[in-house]
Structures are given as C-alpha cells and as structure tokens.
Design a protein that fits this description.
The structure is a homodimer of 113-residue chains.
Chain A (H helix, E strand, L loop, with lengths): L9 H4 L3 H10 L4 E2 H8 L3 H13 L3 E6 L2 E6 L4 H9 L2 H4 L5 H14 L2
Antiparallel strand pairs in A: 1-3, 2-3
Helix pairs in contact in A: 3-4
Chain A binds a DNA duplex (30 and 30 nucleotides) through helix 4.
Pfam family, one (chains A, B): HTH_5
Protein name (chains A, B): Transcriptional regulator
Organism (chains A, B): Actinoplanes couchii
DNA sequence: TTGACGCATTCCGTTATCGGAATATGATTG
DNA sequence: CAATCATATTCCGATAACGGAATGCGTCAA
C-alpha cells in the first residue's frame, strides 16, 4: 500500500507546491493552461496534469473558450481544510513551549496563593 | 523526480489521514506510542513511523518517561497552513457558482445604471 | 544479569507520484 | 481538407510512500 490517492482528497491535492501555486495564481482570475505553465515555469503537460488533480478534487473548474480551456478557482473544498486546521488554533495561539507552559503553570499557582 | 519529501513539509505531513488522526488525538493530551497505535487501530511500527514524520516537521515533540515515550502536540507549524488556506476564504464565503457570479454581475451592472 | 516491555529501525514488496518526451485529441483557421 | 494551436494523455524511469514482519536497542523489574 502506498500513499492514499490524491484524487478525491483535498489535503493531498494541496500537498504539492506547484498545485498550491496554481491555486494562488487563480485567485486573480481565470487562466489558460499555457499561461499557467508559463507563469510557473513548468511544462505544459505538467501543468495539465496538476490541473487534472485539482479538477478531480473540485478545487478548479474548466471552461471552454475557443481552443483554449480557461481554469477558474473553486475554493469551496478548502473550507474543510481550513476548519480542520482551525481546530488547532488554541494550540498555537500564544506559545506552547514546554518551558512556557511551565512558566504559565508557575504564575497560575502563585496567583492562587 | 517523485513527490517532494514529506520531511520538512507540513502540508505533506498532514496529507496522510492517520497522521491527522494522531494530531487530533493529541489535542486531548500526551500519549505513548502504544496508546496511539491502539486507539487508531494500527501497528506499533506504523504509529512510530508516522510520529517520526510529525516529529521531523515539528508538529509533535517527544518526552521520555521511563521506558515510555510520551508524544505531545506542537501545533505551531499548522499556523502556516491555516494562513495559506485562509487566503482563499473570500472565495468560498457565499457561493461562487458560475451562475451566481453571473447573477451578481447582473445586479452590479443594474446598480450602476 | 536475565527477561520483559516500549519504541525505533530496517528490509521488503507494492503502489503511487512526479517530470519529461512523445503523441493523441480537439478546435480553429486558411 | 490541411495546417496549426491548445490541451490532454500515455509511456517511461527514478523515487518515494506506505504497511507488515522481523529485529535492534534502551529501560525497568525481578
């Protein structure tokens, strides 16, 4: 068994830096495959493959425009990621070093005196 | 070239469901490796390997306690993920169907009349 | 010291990923 | 229809990921 298929798994889809870059670019509007490839400095087939993954998890959608295919952002699938990660917010707000925790404990104890 | 190393990449570290489950479990406190394996229904070596990945990206930390090793959460690394994903919030707030966008465009145009 | 326990590591086989090159498909234009 | 442009797919090779089984290693208890 290898890693879970990236298809139908948003977390895996955004685990790839190039795919994150594609999504970021698409925030400013639709792009053709060639444009994306050029802006990212990758080959056309590579861009096409990444777009396929993003399409399969529903993070982008394609629109036919003549012989071009314009890809647009559909970020709704990112909500799940945002919420999962957000569940940890209390754990990074403030510092949670072991030392810091110890210091906080100390202060708390003293305050109770 | 294969996939980027999961090591030193938080996005990749949380792309694996079992590892997400481990992090979730650790929100309620430290656990030993064996406890985690049992609670997740996976083998001890498997748990140990996932913990290694999480340790290497800094999402967990280990503390020696007798012959056990207690793993604790250090979620600070998740902040980066939360912020990146959060940058897309405006795109999933409200619906962004093509139809909806069209309707919004229409309303906007009329408002300008 | 020996044995048991807890954990990490290694080795192995299977599967998936990624980039590149070549090629296929599909639409537009002449 | 032929040529061209834009995109998708396929094939390939190298690499990495994952789980399982076996093993190594340190710690504690008797």
């Amino acid at each position: 068994m290898a890693r879970a298929a990236t298809t139908s798994d948003t977390f895996n889809a955004i685990a790839e830096p190039q795919r994150r870059d594609i999504l970021t670019l698409l925030r400013s509007g639709e792009r053709s495959v060639t444009d994306l490839a050029r802006e990212l400095g990758i080959s056309q087939p590579s861009a096409s493959k990444h777009l396929r993954v993003l399409r399969e998890v529903g993070l982008v959608q394609a629109r036919e425009e003549g012989k071009q295919r314009l890809y647009g952002l559909d970020a709704r699938g990112l909500r799940e990621v945002h919420e999962w990660v957000g569940g940890f917010e209390q754990f990074w707000a403030g510092s949670f070093d072991r030392l810091d925790a110890y210091v906080r404990e100390l202060k708390k104890t003293r305050a109770e005196d």
